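Have a close read of this protein, sequence plus C-alpha coordinates, and explain what the C-alpha coordinates say about the fold. Thanks in advance:
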Amino acid sequence: MTIHSSSKWHDWLFQAQWWYDFSYHSAIKMTPFQAVYGCPPPYRELDPHETTSIAAVEEVVQQRAGLDQWLQLQLEREQNRMK
Protein backbone atom coordinates (compact mmCIF):
# COMPACT_ATOMS: atom_id res chain seq x y z
CA MET A 1 0.00 0.00 0.00
CA THR A 2 2.80 2.42 0.79
CA ILE A 3 4.42 1.87 -2.60
CA HIS A 4 1.75 3.98 -4.30
CA SER A 5 1.97 6.84 -1.80
CA SER A 6 5.37 6.47 -0.19
CA SER A 7 5.50 10.07 0.97
CA LYS A 8 2.20 9.77 2.86
CA TRP A 9 2.67 6.47 4.71
CA HIS A 10 2.44 8.24 8.07
CA ASP A 11 -1.11 9.36 7.22
CA TRP A 12 -2.21 5.71 7.33
CA LEU A 13 -0.24 4.65 10.40
CA PHE A 14 -3.26 4.95 12.68
CA GLN A 15 -5.16 2.57 10.36
CA ALA A 16 -2.41 -0.02 10.66
CA GLN A 17 -2.42 0.34 14.45
CA TRP A 18 -6.20 -0.02 14.55
CA TRP A 19 -6.05 -3.12 12.35
CA TYR A 20 -3.39 -4.70 14.56
CA ASP A 21 -5.18 -3.92 17.82
CA PHE A 22 -8.54 -5.24 16.58
CA SER A 23 -7.27 -8.38 14.77
CA TYR A 24 -7.52 -11.80 16.40
CA HIS A 25 -4.12 -13.24 17.39
CA SER A 26 -3.95 -17.00 17.62
CA ALA A 27 -1.03 -16.93 20.09
CA ILE A 28 -3.04 -15.09 22.75
CA LYS A 29 -6.47 -16.33 21.55
CA MET A 30 -7.91 -12.81 21.47
CA THR A 31 -7.28 -9.35 20.07
CA PRO A 32 -4.60 -7.12 21.63
CA PHE A 33 -7.40 -4.68 22.49
CA GLN A 34 -9.15 -7.38 24.50
CA ALA A 35 -5.90 -8.37 26.19
CA VAL A 36 -5.35 -4.79 27.36
CA TYR A 37 -8.93 -3.74 28.20
CA GLY A 38 -10.52 -7.08 29.13
CA CYS A 39 -13.44 -6.82 26.70
CA PRO A 40 -13.91 -7.28 22.97
CA PRO A 41 -13.17 -4.18 20.91
CA PRO A 42 -16.08 -1.95 19.97
CA TYR A 43 -16.75 -2.02 16.28
CA ARG A 44 -18.62 0.50 14.26
CA GLU A 45 -18.42 0.53 10.52
CA LEU A 46 -17.70 3.94 9.08
CA ASP A 47 -20.47 5.10 6.76
CA PRO A 48 -19.23 7.70 4.24
CA HIS A 49 -22.82 8.93 3.79
CA GLU A 50 -23.18 9.87 7.46
CA THR A 51 -22.22 13.39 8.39
CA THR A 52 -20.82 14.78 11.59
CA SER A 53 -20.08 18.23 12.91
CA ILE A 54 -16.61 17.14 14.04
CA ALA A 55 -14.19 17.98 11.24
CA ALA A 56 -11.52 15.46 12.30
CA VAL A 57 -14.03 12.60 12.31
CA GLU A 58 -15.43 13.67 8.95
CA GLU A 59 -11.91 13.73 7.50
CA VAL A 60 -11.14 10.21 8.78
CA VAL A 61 -14.42 8.85 7.39
CA GLN A 62 -13.74 10.41 3.98
CA GLN A 63 -10.13 9.17 3.96
CA ARG A 64 -11.33 5.69 4.84
CA ALA A 65 -13.92 5.77 2.05
CA GLY A 66 -11.20 6.76 -0.40
CA LEU A 67 -8.93 4.01 0.86
CA ASP A 68 -11.72 1.43 0.54
CA GLN A 69 -12.35 2.47 -3.07
CA TRP A 70 -8.64 2.33 -3.86
CA LEU A 71 -8.28 -1.11 -2.26
CA GLN A 72 -11.29 -2.43 -4.17
CA LEU A 73 -9.79 -1.19 -7.43
CA GLN A 74 -6.44 -2.82 -6.62
CA LEU A 75 -8.10 -6.12 -5.73
CA GLU A 76 -10.13 -6.14 -8.97
CA ARG A 77 -7.01 -5.27 -10.97
CA GLU A 78 -5.05 -8.13 -9.42
CA GLN A 79 -7.93 -10.58 -9.85
CA ASN A 80 -8.12 -9.71 -13.54
CA ARG A 81 -4.36 -10.06 -13.87
CA MET A 82 -4.47 -13.52 -12.28
CA LYS A 83 -7.21 -14.64 -14.70
About this structure: The radius of gyration is 16 Å. Residues 55-82 form the longest helix (28 residues). The chain is about 55% helix and 0% strand. The CA atoms of residues 11 and 63 lie 10 Å apart.
